Amino acid sequence: MLYVVARGLLRMFYAVVFRFKAVGLENIPAEGPVVLCSNHISNFDPPTVGIKVPRKVHYMAKAELFNIPLFGPLIRGLGAFPVKRGGVSKDAIRSAIALLENGGVMGIFPEGSRKSPAGMGKKGAAMIAMRSKATVIPVAVIGSYKPFRRMVIRYGKPIDLSAFIQDSSSDVLERVTDEIMANIREMVREGYK
């Protein structure tokens, strides 16, 4: 219930303040495990990626945030789960895979943080997607979060990872990451044209 109310309020806020528009929602499966892989430009990105999606979107969040009174329980209620600083812990990976194996939706920012070099992806998203056999949807956040300037979110067609499923070579996660990031970069480029 908390998630539905918060999502509704944010939809109204984004519509007024950011003139928000979502494109490609039809590309997100109505059921089954889904990983939404997005570029990362702002702290606003997690709600931006999830507010128009009809399904509940879960995220990893820094473990320290869960220790903040009121805020910790709030983000947990909104679908976040903790990850330790300095890398993705085994517990966080297990939580992500269990969520997806139960048919959930997860939002991931393969760049890791807003300070990472643009377009450089980390392998965690690829590993989680491959292990859970989730559908991977590339997502592009386009805009600058400046009030009354248009913000657009684009959900691309599912990325076909079938060529990588049986691949056991040592660089398979790197190649899957490259494929995901290439799709995101192309969508961002198209969005700014």
UniProtKB/TrEMBL annotation:
It holds the Pfam family Acyltransferase. One of its GO terms (molecular function) is acyltransferase activity. The keyword Phosphoprotein does not apply. InterPro entries: Plipid/glycerol_acylTrfase. It comes from the Bacteria. Keywords: Acyltransferase, Transferase. This is Lysophospholipid acyltransferase family protein. It comes from Paenibacillus aurantiacus.
